[in-house]
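Researcher: Please translate sequence to structure tokens.
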Amino acid sequence: MIGLTRLLVVLATTLVASGGTVLAVGLFGSPLTSHDGSDYGLDTNGNGTYDWLVVQAAVVLPGTGYWDIAATLSSSTAPVGGPCSNVYPQPVPLLGNLFAPPSYPISWAYERYFFESGAQTIRFAFAGTDIYRAGVDGPYDVLAHLSIGGGIVYGNIGILPGPMPPVVEWRGVTAAYRATDFEEPFRPAFFTGGHTDSGMHVDDDGLYDFLEIRADVHVNVPGSYSLSGVLTPKIATLQDSWVSPIGYGYREVRLDMRDTSVSLPIRGDQIRMAGIDGPWDLALTLSGGYSYREGYANGTNGTIIDTRPVMYYPEMLCGSTGSHRAADFDDTVELLRYTGVIQELVEDYDGDALYDVLHLRAEVEVIVAAGFDLRGDLQSGDGSRGISTFWAQSWMAEGVAWTDWYFSGGEIRASGLDGPYLATLSMTPTYAGIDPTTTYRTKAYRAVDFEGAATNRSGYWIANMSAAGTPDSGLAIQIEVQRGNDLLAYVIEDTLTTVVYDAARNPLWTMTDRVYLTSGGSLQSFGYKVDGLAQGTYTVVVILGPQDRPVDTRSVSVTL
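Model: Translation complete:
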């Protein structure tokens, strides 16, 4: 049963002066305060624990309309879970020797209803899983603010300008429930307590690039989770907690249903910049493992599945790291490293037996997801002459992945230098940073094996063309147009013109068709039959593209 409480209202006036000018500021009026009400636990699934703590409050409302109810359930005892800190706020001095006791929120409720003015009984409820998770027994303090006109009013309103809507405040104290009387929240994954930390090297300069935090977890629901963490200096007082963090990190992890561990790298340059030696306080947060409701609702057109995700409480791990020195960490970290695995390919896009590109694929391990600027330099075997340069940008997610580097065959041919070549591959974080670099020596190619810029074909061409026949059966013509193995996401459209000439070079027959190549590697075939030709020699000419600017041409002589 709700008990009566005493309300202390402190009125303050503020004078703001500047250059002899007084600024008047409007204040909220004292809220209308009520205390009468009741509370009870509600078990909705029949398992013997309360899913809700329901509060019914008797109030007198000064107006008719939609009222917003914002309520807080709190306790004078700090919750056992929540943010990592062993330091709690001290009592706040009010007047003389009066102190406001500490108050720790446990759960919140928000409702919106239409009420007529006058005496009303309002009802709101706090989630039982909030109370169980707090681990604090009752009685609990309840503070509710009611406001009309769409605004939500919370405690400690402060100074706001202008006239304000009516506000009703209700305070009460619940019965003495136990935290274990309420529903235990389901935990898709949670920390089991064990954790370690160690420096991580990406390069060989002797300084740590990251501090790797590894923590043990138990997973009940497999799936994708968000893992974040922050390092802070060791604190002894509340005032010490208002310092900047030493370092922080975030990553997405995929977890299977088992006992396992998660790791989080904290960047070494952040630790080096902070300049504070360890041990440091550690706070890790794990969230995710969302499932979906299986409930149904009747719609106007049938049954509708409720697919909204079920949100779970984030899990936290609080602890301390080892005694690391800030000076042991690198002030310029590399966010990825090469694994040493490189594949080498030469690609002929147009099928003319000459290489259009030299393609290198380098495997990398990305430690922190980021955007990277890629630069590749292809040089002579002794590194004295540059041959070709490749530029690109790419967003790299965490984990092991392939990067692709393309060097122009035309530039290789123009250099006149035979292989093996020396390739230098560099990846720099787009925003700033140090570029991990690796070198690779290619196979011994000949420069003339690559496509020359002057003879470079278009991305499509006449792949095959044939003509044969007799005076009785006519002249049969077969043509194939080929598109190269490009990765371009557009359709190539053009024309194909076929002309049959007699021995005196007079055109006897002409046909123009549309060429339509949808993607890389596409092949389009054309077939024609020309009747009524006498014995003799004829020339068949095929033109791909406009006749004044052909993409490709073929011709063949046929004797009937």
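Researcher: Any highlights?
Model: The chain has three helices and 37 strands.
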